Amino acid sequence: AQTVTQSQPEMSVQEAETVTLSCTYDTSENNYYLFWYKQPPSRQMILVIRQEAYKQQNATENRFSVNFQKAAKSFSLKISDSQLGDTAMYFCAFVNGSSNTGKLIFGQGTTLQVKP
Amino acid sequence: ETGVTQSPTHLIKTRGQQVTLRCSSQSGHNTVSWYQQALGQGPQFIFQYYREEENGRGNFPPRFSGLQFPNYSSELNVNALELDDSALYLCASSAVTGVTGELFFGEGSRLTVL
């Protein structure tokens, strides 16, 4: 069975600084996808960034980038130039590439507080 | 373009009762997935509906059931409510099943079971 672990329940960062959220996963699959989702307080969960396991290049979306270490089964999220609107709960998630449902397996989440 | 909407946003039930939660998928999306998110935890997959049929199910008992309608809206029904059913229930729609379909989530229905 696949598992996703986020070992940092809470983190904080000063506005404009950089923060890295950690995620490790366990799977015997070779074909899979990894995601970071953002869940602001009382608002919809939205996709931040997506990484296909077969791609060696780390995904980047504006201020958000990942460090994907396939051998170590590690998938961290780096937020550069943190903004107050980045305050949210962040979830790392895994999908088996052969899944017919796209069922996401989520980690426990990391609450990020961006301080002015 | 209308996003995913869920109703009700909050509700309180007592143990043993039944509840129905509703979800309207994003325009053009034919697939709906339901997740349960306990307080302080990550969401867990309950099931998915595609073209009015259940397309996959997580590790939830049969008292969790669902429906999808011809307009692709969906319902989640939970019978014989237990205290542990207290959670945020998230609906997510996508244009396709499988890993290529990006999920769009609603704000959720927060259920409290007393």
Describe the structure.
The complex is a heterodimer of chains A (116) and B (114). Chain A is mainly β and 116 residues long. Helix content of chain A is 0%, strand content 52%. Chain A has no helices and twelve strands. In chain A, the strands form three sheets. In chain A, strands 2, 5, 6, 10, 11 and 12 form a six-stranded mixed β-sheet that branches. In chain A, strands 3-9-8-7 form a four-stranded antiparallel β-sheet, with no helix packed on it. In chain A, β7 and β8 (64-69) form a beta hairpin. Chain A is globular. In chain A, 36% of the residues are buried. The model of chain B has no long low-confidence stretch (mean pLDDT 93). Chain B has 114 residues and is mainly beta. Chain B has strands at residues 5-7, 10-13, 19-24, 31-37, 44-50, 53-57, 64-68, 74-78, 87-94, 104-105, 109-113. Chain B is globular and about 35 Å long. The A-B interface holds A 4, 33, 42-47, 91, 93, 95-97, 99-109 and B 3-4, 33, 35, 40-45, 48, 55-56, 58, 90, 92, 94, 97-107.
